[in-house]
Amino acid sequence: MATIAPARTETARAPGASAAARAFLRRELLLAWRRRNDALFPVLYAIIVAALFPFALGPEPQLLARISGGVLLVTVLLAMLPTLESMFRGDLEDGSLEQMLLAPQPLALLALARIVGYWLTTTLPLIVVAPLLALLLHLPLDVLPVLLSALLLATPLLALLGAVLAALTAGTRRSAILLALMLLPLAVPVVIFAAGAVAAAQSGLPHSAPLLWLAAALVLALVLAPLACAAALRIAIES
Amino acid sequence: MSEPSSNPAPLLRVHALAFARNDEAVFGPLDFALDRGETLLVEGDNGSGKTTLLRVLAGLLPPSTGEIRCDGQAISRDAIAGRMVFLGHHPGMKSDLSPCENLAFLSGLYGTREGVSVDAALAQVDLSIYAHTPLRLLSAGQKKRAALARLTLLPGELWLLDEPYANLDRHGIELVNALISMHGARGGATLLTSHGAVRFADPNARHVRLELAA
C-alpha cells in the first residue's frame, strides 16, 4: 500500500544552489544560441550610432578623439537599453517565472544567473566590437585597455541596475520607455566614472580611481541587485 | 485505500480562505482538506476563480483572508518549495528549446523523482519522437503533453493542476487520469481544476468536489 515516507524524502533531493545556477545558465546560453541572430542587433545598432558621429561632426580626428570615450560609453548604454526590457518578460509570459518562483531554490540566485546570462550573451558582443568603434572615433590606441576595463566594469553594473528595473516593469505595458526613463538617471554616475577614466587616461593622468569606484559599485550591485530583482519579480507575478 | 490516520494533519488544509482583488471577492471563504492519496476536483464556470485559487495555494498570490496549512503548519515559501508541482495555463517552458532541454532545465531546479529520467518521462506522455524538436513547432496538445511530463519527472507530493485537460485529445485525457491515479497510489495528492466539460472519471481516487460559484 502507498506509504507517506517516499513522498517525504523526495524533497530532500532538491539540487544544490550552485547546480541550479549552472542549469539556469546553461538554459540561458542555449536559448541565446538558438536566437543567435538577435545578438547581432545591439552590435549593429552600436556600430551605426558610433558611425553617425563622424558624419555629424565632420572628420576631424582631434575633435573625435576628444569625445570618443564618452560617445562610446553612451553608445553602449543606448545599445543595451532596448534589450534590457525583455530580460524577464519572456519568462513572465510563458510561465517559466512561476516555475522559477516555486522551485526549491533562492530566487535571487536564479535572477543573478539570468543577469550573468544576459551580460554574456548581449553585452559581451558589444565589448568585443568596442575596439572597432574606438577606431571609428579615432580613440588613441594606448587608451584602448582603459576603455575596455571601463566597459568591463560599467556594463555589468548597468545590467544589474537594468535588471532590477526590468523586473519592476515586467508586468506593465509600454515598459521599454518606462525602463529607459528610470534607468538613464541611474546610469549617469556610471557614465561619469567610466568616461572619466578614459578621459584621464587620454590626458595622461592617473585613471585607476574612477575604475576602482566602478568596481566598488559593481560589488555592491552584485550583492543587492539580485535581492531587489527577486522581490520585484514576486510582485510582478502577483499582478 | 491508504489509511491517513497515521498522520493526523492532512497534507493540505485550507481554512476560511478567500481572495479579493480591488475589494471585489474572487472566491471564498473556502474550507477544505486534501490528504495523501486523495484527488480534489475544483469545478466552476469560467471566471469563478479556479485559477486564482490555485495560484493562492501555490503561494504565487497572497490570500486576502484565511490560512493554508501544510502538514498542520502554516504555509511558508520554504516549507512548500519543492514539495509541489504546479501546472498552470502556460506551459512554463521555453518555445525555442526542445521538450528534452526544457525538462532537463526544470530537473536542474527541482531535482528528479528517483529512477525517472527525462527520456522516460517523455516516453510516458508519448512524446519521445518529438523529444528534440523545439517546442514552438509542436501542436498545443503536444505542448501540453510536454508540460505534463514534468509531473512524472519532478519530485513533489502535491500536484496543483490548472485545467490539465485543456487542448488534449481522448488519449491525452486518459493519460492525465492515469498519471493522477498513479500519483494517488504512491501517496501523492492532486488538486485539479476543470470547467466541467470533461468528465473526470477515476474510480480509484477519492474525490472531493469543490464548486466555485461565479
Question: What would you note in describing this structure?
Answer:
- The complex is a heterodimer of chains A (239) and B (214).
- Chain A has 239 residues and is mostly helical.
- Chain A has one domain.
- Helix content of chain A is 81%, strand content 0%.
- Chain A has helices at 5-10, 17-34, 40-57, 61-84, 89-93, 96-102, 107-136, 144-169, 175-202, 208-238.
- In chain A, α3 (40-57) packs parallel to α7, α7 (107-136) crosses α8 and α8 (144-169) runs parallel beside α10.
- The model of chain A is unreliable at 1-12 (pLDDT under 50).
- Chain B is an alpha/beta fold.
- Helices cover 29% and strands 27% of the residues of chain B.
- Chain B is built from 6 helices and 9 strands.
- Chain B has helices at 50-58, 77-80, 99-110, 118-124, 140-153, 170-185; strands at residues 12-21, 24-34, 38-44, 65-70, 73-74, 84-87, 158-161, 189-194, 206-212.
- In chain B, strands 6-7-8-3-9 form a 5-stranded parallel β-sheet, with helices on both faces. A 4-stranded antiparallel β-sheet of chain B has the order 2-1-4-5, covered by helices on one side.
- In chain B, a hairpin with a 2-residue loop joins β4 and β5.
- The two termini of chain B are 34 Å apart.
- In chain B, 48% of the residues are buried.
- Residues 1-5 of chain B have low confidence and may be disordered.
- At the A-B interface, α1, α2 and α6 of A face α3 of B.
